[in-house]
Amino acid sequence: MRHQSQDKDGKSSVAEQQIVEISKAVSSKARIVIMDEPTAALSKRNVRSSTA
């Protein structure tokens, strides 16, 4: 997946990495998920869409 926010090395941005980690945590159906500032690097729009 090549995305505009990826740098020239093809690495994902910090925000994109956080979205992936949040998605993995939610999809694992864990009973408890402990996160330390999971949305710190996300824009308000991304926070709304990832927590909806």
Question: How would you characterize this protein structure?
Answer:
- This protein is mainly alpha-helical and 52 residues long.
- The protein has one domain (15-51).
- The chain has helices spanning 14-27, 44-51.
- The protein starts with 13 loop residues before the first helix and ends with a helix.
- The relative contact order is 0.17.
- The model has no long low-confidence stretch (mean pLDDT 75).
Describe what is shown at a glance.
With 52 residues, the protein is mainly alpha-helical. The chain is built from two helices and no strands.
SSE order and pairing:
Elements: H1 14-27, H2 44-51
Q: Mean pLDDT across all residues, rounded?
A: 75
The helix-and-strand class reads mainly alpha
Pick out the low-confidence regions.
none
How much is the radius of gyration in Å?
12 Å
**Helical content (DSSP H or I, runs of 4+):** 40-55%
Beta-strand level of the residues, as a percent range?
Answer: under 5%
Q: What is the total number of structural domains? A: 1
**Could you give the count of β-strands?**
0
How many H/I helices?
2
Q: Helix and strand string, N-terminal first? A: HH
Keywords:
globular, mainly alpha, 52 residues, 2 helices
